[in-house]
Amino acid sequence: MLHATPIAGAGSPHVVVVGNEKGGSGKTTMAAHLAIALLKIGQRVGTIDLDSNQRGLTRYLENRCIWAHHRQIVLELPLHRFVPRAEGANLEDNEAEELAAFEAAISDIKASIDFLVN
Questions:
Q1: How many domains in the chain?
Q2: How far apart are CA 89 and CA 99, in angstroms?
Q3: pLDDT digits over 28-75, tens only?
Q4: 19 Cβ contact partners less than 8 Å away, ≥ 6 residues apart
Q5: The domain containing residue 50 runs over which residues?
Q6: Distance between CA 52 and CA 105 in Å, rounded?
Q7: Looking at the domain assignment, is residue 45 inside a domain?
Q8: Phi-psi region for residue 26, left (φ > 0), alpha (ψ -120 to 50) or beta?
Q9: Strand partners, 45
Q10: How many Cβ atoms from other residues are within 10 Å of residue 37's Cβ?
Q11: Are strands 79-82 and 115-117 parallel, antiparallel or unpaired?
Q12: Residue 40 domain-assigned?
């Protein structure tokens, strides 16, 4: 769905979208490394995982947090949100529900971040 007006406005975070139609091309790996690199140079970073099948970025960040906790290491972590796939019977309703969840995720973190990576 295309928007007639931009979602981001003045004072909004920079948005970096890592995308490719091909599976296994390294999108999640690139997004994770980019987010961590931005954190390491002092930027406030948010991430949104839109891949409801794999949840790769979500699982990576969860595992990073668990690993650091067990080793008593403080690691930089982005503000992260996961947008689940709608499961209704109507495609239009599902699209509207997913868009609303995506917009809510952005609204929830945009004031606290300099970059949004997904």
A1: 1
A2: 16
A3: 999 999 999 999 999 999 999 998 889 999 999 999 999 999 999 999
A4: 27
A5: 26-117
A6: 15
A7: yes
A8: left
A9: 115
A10: 13
A11: unpaired
A12: yes
Residue indicated by tokens 């595992």: 63
Q: Does residue 5 fall inside a structural domain?
A: no
Whether the predicted model's global pTM rises above the 0.85 cut: no
Q: Are 23 and 17 in contact (CB under 8 A)?
A: no
Query: Where is pLDDT greater, at 6 or 66?
Result: 66
C-alpha closest to that of 94 among 15, 102, 26: 102
Q: Which amino acid is at 52?
A: S
pLDDT given for residue 10 in this prediction = 60
Q: What proportions of the chain, in percent to the nearest 5, are helix, strand and coil?
A: 45, 15, 45
Taking 70 as the threshold, does the pLDDT of residue 1 lie above it? no
Whether 4 is in a domain gets the answer no
